[in-house]
Backbone:
């Protein structure tokens, strides 16, 4: 079944919902519905002999181009694409070894690509319904924020050992997860489309989340910086929430729909994928000052996710 994705403007923000085939896609915002049918061939494919890529952007592809991952170097020049194993790419993530993980909302699967490769090395699918965001911990265990499907059995946050399709832990709840992040202590955080933030102290074992004291206008991707601050996509904004997570310390505004975010390795830059405006905004962090916009001139079509290579500064 083909899947379309739609951003709906709500009173408190913008959230992602899934629409089955035949619905209007981005129509309410005047945007082309993404198509996962065969379209134009990608301009370039990466292989083992290519140079290091700094950014990986999940791209829905618009109406005529296949959903794909677009790769940009440290000066934001387009360097290639990954299309093998991609169908409805949403969030993506690099682990500390440079392996790339891509959530595919339409299949539903998370594909893992070894460093410098364009073919999936492993597929995570067990228990998944609508994978939206991915992260890994220090041991490279894989965590997936999976939007709940009321007609299925999945949803919540799922944990896998790297290279295993066996679910180690799955915590279901009613917040409809879109974001997931884990800190250096192994505490896991998730965000939901309703703006709820949860903390799983010590990880998913026991499935005993604490609801944090901040409720966002809506949910999206989620990052955590080296100081333990949550950096949360929240509709038109990105909010920074420091421990003990009872108040927002900084709101960065001006996005059409902040879907996913990523930090550079030295945490001096923040990247925000904004599918409503067809671009990725580059900002200083933590200040939030504008740096540049990545768009069609950088080879992007309809970006929804962004990941920074662990060596990128």
Residues:
């Amino acid at each position: 079944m083909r899947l379309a994705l739609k951003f709906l403007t709500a009173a408190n923000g913008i959230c992602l919902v899934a629409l089955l085939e035949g619905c209007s896609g981005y129509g309410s915002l005047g945007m082309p519905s993404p198509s996962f049918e065969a379209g134009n061939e990608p301009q370039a494919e990466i292989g083992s002999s290519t140079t290091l890529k700094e950014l990986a952007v999940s791209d829905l592809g618009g109406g005529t181009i296949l959903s794909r991952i677009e790769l940009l170097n440290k000066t934001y020049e387009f360097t290639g694409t990954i299309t093998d194993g991609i169908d409805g790419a949403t969030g993506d993530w690099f682990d500390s070894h440079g392996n790339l993980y891509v959530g595919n909302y339409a299949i539903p699967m998370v594909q893992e690509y070894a460093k410098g490769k364009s073919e999936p090395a492993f597929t995570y699918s067990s228990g998944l319904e609508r994978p939206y965001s991915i992260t890994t911990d220090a041991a490279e265990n894989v965590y997936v924020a999976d939007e709940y499907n009321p007609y299925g059995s999945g949803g919540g946050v799922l944990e896998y050992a790297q290279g295993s399709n066996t679910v180690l832990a799955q915590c279901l709840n009613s917040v409809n997860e879109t974001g997931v992040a884990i800190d250096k202590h192994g505490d896991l955080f998730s965000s939901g489309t309703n703006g709820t933030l949860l903390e799983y102290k010590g990880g998913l074992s026991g499935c005993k989340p604490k609801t944090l004291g901040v409720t966002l206008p809506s949910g999206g991707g989620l990052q955590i910086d080296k100081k333990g601050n949550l950096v949360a996509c929240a509709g038109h904004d990105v909010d920074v929430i420091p421990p003990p997570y009872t108040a927002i310390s900084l709101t960065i505004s001006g996005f059409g729909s902040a879907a996913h975010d990523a930090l550079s390795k030295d945490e001096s830059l923040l990247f925000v994928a904004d599918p409503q405006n067809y671009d990725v905004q580059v900002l200083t962090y933590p200040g939030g000052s504008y740096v540049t916009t990545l768009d069609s001139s950088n080879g992007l079509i309809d970006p929804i996710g962004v990941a920074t290579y662990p060596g990128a500064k």
In short: The longest strand covers residues 3-10. The radius of gyration is 17 Å. The chain has one domain: 36-308. Confidence is low (pLDDT under 50) at residues 1-52.
